[in-house]
Amino acid sequence: MAEPGSTPDVYNSGGLHTVREDEEDMATPDVKDAGMKIEMATEVYKAYGDFEEAPTKLEIFTWYLYSMCSYFIQAVLLPIVFPLFISEIRSHGNIPNDSFKNSRGLTCYLREMDLYHGLTNSTIHVNGSAFSPFEWTSISWGVGLIIAFPILGFIAKHLDHGQNQQLIGITATAIGAVFCLPSGVFKTKWIFPLYIAAIVAAYTVCTAFHTRHLGLMIRGFTGHPLRKSQFPHRRGVASWLSLHATSAGCLGAAIIATFTYHMLYPSEKFIGLWIVSIFSGLKWLVGIFHVFLANRPAAITSLSFIFSGTPHVLSVFKYPHAIGSLFGVFLASFSTMCIFAGAVLHAIGELCLTPQHLLHLWLLYFLVPLLTLPLLQPLQKFLKADAVKMQLLGLLLSVTTAGFGFYYQLKNWSRGHIMFFAALQSTAAGLLHAFGRILVLDCSPCGKEGAFSVWYAWIRESGTCLGFAVATAIPGMIGKSLGTAFVVGVVAILVLIFGNISSFGGAKAAGHLSEESVRGSPVHGLDSTEMKKPIQLETP
Fold it and tell me: What is the pTM of this model?
């Protein structure tokens, strides 16, 4: 029994011990309760796809890095390196560096003409049919797209509602890079369709992964949903990211094009081009660092999604703005590749451009966007132009190039004119690439960026492949290739103007815009005034 006046030893009993802990917990109830609610709300917003954290500078840098390490595949490796590779399988002896006058009265050299005829002559015979190295590349490219189609349909659901997005990106990048390495081991035409098809399929999957990540970064900077008055902030952030990534990709393409030129003129061209292919694979593999940092968990799959009768990849057909934007992407990619491939062939075979001037043409084509694209972003902001209007600008530049080339097809183009229109067309191609994916992502609902990205990747690659096939199937007929590109470009303009397509309308249909400033919290007891996702007004 305790003595009078002494303090009882009540804290040794279990019940009173609990009372003391409760009293301590009640010391700051509001602070702890609010902190728990905010933490719970953040997790719920992440889980259901409405909330994305703003990307770090390192994440943005590695996203640019991946663009620099992969864009060259469709710009240089497939349309230039592999046709040259295949053309070197034929047997040809020593060719003197003599010159002659062609039908246009221009001085041509036998070595360059031998290279041109090796690319365009039908030297590959299969079951009574003959194909040129260009046509062999086009067929292999198409096979790769056929292989990629079911793969993209399968991964669309996993990109948006799975937990293995990084595994998809790493696997596709590794497979594509590995198939670049042994391309010169067997000097036979039969092995190249395997290499090209695997690279095309892997690159298409990587493009879908890369494009989806852009959509998540945009949402991380701007928040979701937005008021109508806040939509220009989304437009500015998306343009900034996409334009700079395209510029980085053009820099990577210029590096590979320069390396290809220097490896093309040793005595053993086949080995030199094999070295280019190995370097391309290693360069592509460097971009895998972005995939390791691209850890953005997918949204929790709802019951409505599980029991939905429509496959996830087909959800794009419920959004007319998205369908129109994808059709525009197909036409734009067809037109730009048709102009590029047709003009380069014409410059070599008909205008007898020297190797040094050909290198200057490539460098100008790939390096000019490094200056013009970032400068066009302030112009876009000043004009308050959305992705559709910027695409129209790119199409107008492309149609101008094709129109002038078609009109003066019988004239001997001067080097100055060639370089000027190369700079004009390169800017057009950069604009169409940068704003084509922005428009598709504007039309993509929250949680469906993966499904829309796989369609964008496949449609864009299909247009590029078809444009390459058309331009290289009719060498020596620049009028037909440029005329086709002109007509397709005009059709693309008409689709964007009269197809009732807009970034704002697509974003509204996709649920990116809301009349309310902030939507109610999914956590019971947390008012909208207690937690708000601020819009990041600064560009990355």
Answer: 0.86
